[in-house]
Design goal:
Peroxisomal Thiolase, Chain A, domain 1; disordered N terminus; 9-stranded mixed β-sheet; 11 strands; 2 domains; alpha/beta; 37% helix; homodimer
């Protein structure tokens, strides 16, 4: 790298030296590895899906959902940040990270209308402030990440990984929290699932203890799907969704030299069992290896699903070594895949 | 680093090998430097601030603002993403980066109610989709960053820097775009400035050509300020705001071994001239070195201010070497500082 620098005086010379040293120092610094730890979650009260008003009027869809594995969903009277608080407390405990060592907070959410109020930056800043204050994390600024819907959590984790790998941050708390307002529909189009209220959280850390090594993250997008009406053109919608899923995972696997059967478990959204079979086909991960225990309990907790499933999977596996785990978050036009390996 | 890995069979052994090689490879990879290039912006039509309805009714505030350097503000009939489109086209041209080489897009905004409609994820995804499609950038997923108000752009740039320094991305397009709805107030509390509609953009790149080396970024937060009513307790508000500004810059300078007089220019928010003098005192940068030309033209363009000022400063300086430039974005309880040095 060549620098043609102008040394016009004493001040400039010092500044140029500072910059040169910085570039030298940074270029000789190794990229850190990033580890995900302390995956946890909180849900509201679990109610039978038959209590959802829309399903009372549409017993066909209700029957289909019940046949395909759905049973209860999470209904919260608490605000998203209140659910987040419980989840984050569990995360901090499980991760064994001192709160003073958490140096950034990223909040993944689609729910800017979550209190039934229109979006107002100051209102949400105050909610985030109360949350961080109550958690002894008010030294963190906090950032909101949105626009990728059910894949927001993957987007947030990828941004956290960048901060950690580059050495800018040591421990980034990532959390998701979404609750529906009473007037919002709880049905996912095409009988895919029912939407629940939930929060989930984890820490992306430069320290490996108690963590999963984050091998790779990959997002795949098909913006064109936003323009397709799935009701009137289901076959196109279905085909491109399937391609979106396989694209996200294939690109990830190619970067790692992996195949679907290398993964001990696939943790994905809690959607109906028929969709899980499609996901199995597209990812080439055997359907028996897809974590499905939470479908009947929690249904689809927006972008929190994959951390919820990771938290429960981790509890079952505690202390055991494992092969890589594949996480897949599917949105309506964007998909995010992440490969993790548990460190022992 | 020690790995106690379980080799239970052929599959596990291959997976363990993949992971070990990855960790080895990543740990031997140097952190990239990150460069900011192509700062550009777009505003609406410039109207006298005396046309603002609230100021017609409050001639005292109007007179104060006019005395303290304000003249016109930007009023846009276009949507924020339309302003963003023009700005991004200029950024791509100025940066000399091929669009196919842009691999991520981050959108900094506080304006989720920007069309006067309540926040709806699908609506905003569609707007972002149209924007990226019209720019030949639909291979990018796009993420929204919020919660830091006028400091959103610093938060977005820091996230982009993490992605670039870690080697995950080569060129991240960062843009900000905010327009007020007709019913929203254009007055910043305490006669600080008037709010304008604008968009701004830049590319954070791993390639140095045409760029500024991003030396350091630092955010400082005082969540407690959110709870202070500046009208009834102005002295506390003022004191803590001043401390917030000096804290953000002092921490940055300490990490670089710099002092205020090392900076050739301070690019900050377009607020009234009296506030600029306070900023000068708190940052220890001479008031003559604060870029103030856009105060009378544009007033306060939310988080776009600092990129707007950088774009115009860059035009004036084109081809010339420079000492470091300090960028400071001030929000109501959070401050972001960034040090840049122009590469030649």
């Amino acid at each position: 790298m060549l620098f043609h620098w102008f040394y016009g005086g004493k001040g400039e010379s010092r500044s140029a030296l500072v910059m040169k040293n910085l570039i030298k120092e940074r270029s000789s610094q190794a990229v850190s590895c990033a580890y995900l730890k302390g995956a946890s979650y909180e849900v509201g009260s679990l109610r039978p899906i038959s209590e959802i008003e829309e399903l009372k009027k549409d017993t066909n869809t209700l029957d289909t959902l019940l046949t395909l594995g759905l049973e209860t969903f999470s209904l919260s009277t608490k605000k998203p940040v209140e659910l987040a608080k419980s989840s984050i407390e569990k995360t901090v405990d499980r991760a064994g990270v001192d709160r003073s060592q958490i140096d950034e907070v990223i909040y993944a959410t689609s729910g800017y209308a979550m209190s039934g109020k229109p979006w107002c930056p100051v209102h949400y800043s105050k909610e985030l402030n109360s949350l961080l204050l109550s958690l002894n994390l008010s030294h963190c600024t906090g950032m909101g990440v949105s626009f990728s819907q059910c894949v927001n959590i993957i987007a947030a984790i990828e941004l956290a990984v960048g901060l950690v790998e580059s050495g800018r941050k040591k421990n980034v708390l990532v959390f998701s929290a979404d609750c529906l307002s009473p007037h919002e529909s709880r049905l996912v189009d095409n009988g895919i699932s029912v939407i629940s209220d939930a929060a989930a959280s984890c820490i992306v850390s430069s320290e490996q203890n108690n963590g999963y090594f984050i091998e790779a993250i990959n997002k795949n997008i098909d913006w064109g799907l936003l323009e397709i009406d799935s009701a009137s053109d289901f076959s196109t919608f279905f085909k491109r969704t399937a391609e979106g899923i396989s694209g996200a995972v294939q690109q990830l696997n190619q970067s790692l030299g992996r195949v679907g059967s290398d993964y001990e478990q696939l943790l994905t959204n809690s959607v109906n069992l028929s969709i899980l079979r499609i996901i199995s086909r597209q990812t080439k991960v055997d359907v028996d290896r897809i974590y499905s225990k939470n479908i009947s309990r929690f249904a689809h907790c927006d972008c929190s699903d994959i951390l919820i499933n990771l938290a429960d999977y981790e509890l079952e596996k505690e202390g055991e070594k494992s092969d890589p785990v594949l996480l897949l978050a599917s949105g309506p036009y964007v998909w995010g895949a992440m490969s993790l390996v548990r460190m022992c």
